[in-house]
User: What shape does this take?
Amino acid sequence: MNYKALSKFMSYILRHNPNKFNIKLDVNGWTNLDHLINILNKDRRFHDLEIVDIQNMIKTSNKMRFEIHNKQIRALYGHSIDKKIKKEQSKPPIFLYHGTARRFMDSIRKKGLIPKNRQYVHLSKDVDTALIVGKRRDDRPVILKIEAKRAYEEGINFYKEKDDIWLCDEISFKYIKLYDGFKKKSI
Ligand code: HQG
Assistant: This one.
C-alpha cells in the first residue's frame, strides 16, 4: 500500500472535495469511516484497502493529518471547503512561526497572513517545522515569528487540536516579525 498516495487522496477528499465523493462532513469535519473506505475501494490503487491500512498510514506519518474516533474519521487541518470547519479555541504559546515564500512578502506586509485558499492560516510551533512548510514553496523560505500571545490577548482567536499545527483566522502584520534567529542563534 502506498501510504503517501493514500494520505494525499484522503486529504483531497476530506479537506477539499467531499461533495465529489458524496461524503458529508459534520461541523467538526467528521465523516463515517466505512463510507470513506467504500469510496477508497472504488479506486484501483486502494481496491483492497482495510481500516488497518488507514490506521497504519496515520501512525507512520510524520504529521498527524487525520484522526479516527468511534467509526468516524476527519482531517485535522487544511480544509478548503466552503462550510467552515469548527475548531477548538486554545491559548497559544508566546510565539508561533510561519514559513513562507519570499515572493509573498510584499503582500503579507500589506495584508498580514490570510488563509488564501484554506479556511484558516496555519502556524507552526517551532522554527524547524516552519522551515519545512516554507520549503514547499521556496528553497530559501522566509520564517515569520508571530507574537501569538499578544495577538490572543488582543482578541485574535487561535485553534489547536491534536497536531502541533496551530490555526487562526488571520494575523495582522503588526504581530509579525522576520525571524532572524539563524544569525543570532537564539530566538
Ligand atoms: C501565503 C501543509 C500572499 C502563506 C503544510 C502560504 C502546512 C500569503 C500560502 C499546511 C498571504 C498559503 C498549510 C498574503 C498568507 N499574501 N501570500 N497576505 N498570507 N500567504 O498551503 O501554511 O502536508 O494554504 O504564507 O505543511 O503553506 O498538506 O498554507 O505560503 O502544515 O498536511 O499563502 O499544509 O500540510 O499556502 O501550509 P497554504 P501553508 P500538509
